[in-house]
């Protein structure tokens, strides 16, 4: 048996970011952090046409700058200089521009493999240990922490356990933490696409009666596609040959980037808004998709999780290092993040539902809203700050 101060179950982007945010303060306090992850992180980054990616808001860039990681990420971070928002078949549209907001970019699109590579390289082995590949089979609460039973028979105790093991967390279920699950009745089709014309660092959010789509700029003049459709339709689109698929995508998206020439592997993800009814217990925190899983079209999920990471790290490092994980401290973290979480989840959910509805009154209303967004600077600025992950910050 061994004991550490902090055990992070899930060494993906959220778990590794928390370890990074804590490591300097942990080193000063004599804390040991362990990351427990089933899949070994890659030490060498290998570019791939089909690499999955994440949209990082400008606020997320600021967080990674504070943590010293942005210079490592930046070489393969494709800036989003503008966002074009439109409703298929209707005249109204809105455009958000980085120059209007006084920022170098509204956000960035980064391959997950590159982001993970940068995170893993930045972790200090003196304070952050890997248990990988390793699987936690169960968690048992103790008076002063948690006991983790690993699949290989080892047992580990910690003062604070962090669940960052995804939206389908078995450990969350074992602990009896209920979730509010609201299915969208949609499935996201994810793929990378190459257009004939340069994307010029534009992002496109296009809404249709059958569901929204986003096309985000990637390096090497690729675009990351997120196309949400009813499940049977998404499955049909996945199974089309490349030419037929590009034809249907072209019809739905239009010719703003010229002809669409290539599409890579297509992956399907059924979409449900998931919110854990408890984010903290004594000596336990849920982070990332284990705490809240959002619709991907607004690109807010990972960015909200990273703001949670920073708030949790700040709260822990400001507390008593000898009483790590006490309930009042963890409740203070949740309270500090409540407004941000409520605003971000609400913004993402309402935008998705509003622009996935064919009712004539809603269609007319949302088009007036898009027109007003483009004509009213205060409304546009509010919307832009939400998109940049700055909605609750001055």
Automatic annotation (TrEMBL):
Residues 4-317 form the FAD-binding domain. It comes from Pseudomonas fluvialis. Keywords: FAD, Flavoprotein, Monooxygenase, Oxidoreductase. The keyword Cell division does not apply. The keyword Oxidoreductase applies. This is 2-octaprenyl-6-methoxyphenyl hydroxylase. Its cofactor is FAD. NCBIfam families: PRK05732.1 (NF004356), Ubi-OHases (TIGR01988), UbiH (TIGR01984). Belongs to the UbiH/COQ6 family. Pathway: Cofactor biosynthesis; ubiquinone biosynthesis. SUPFAM superfamilies: FAD/NAD(P)-binding domain. InterPro entries: FAD-bd (IPR002938), FAD/NAD-bd_sf (IPR036188), UbiH (IPR011295), UbiH/COQ6 (IPR010971), UbiH/COQ6_monooxygenase (IPR051205). Pfam families: FAD_binding_3. Gene3D superfamilies: FAD/NAD(P)-binding domain (3.50.50.60).
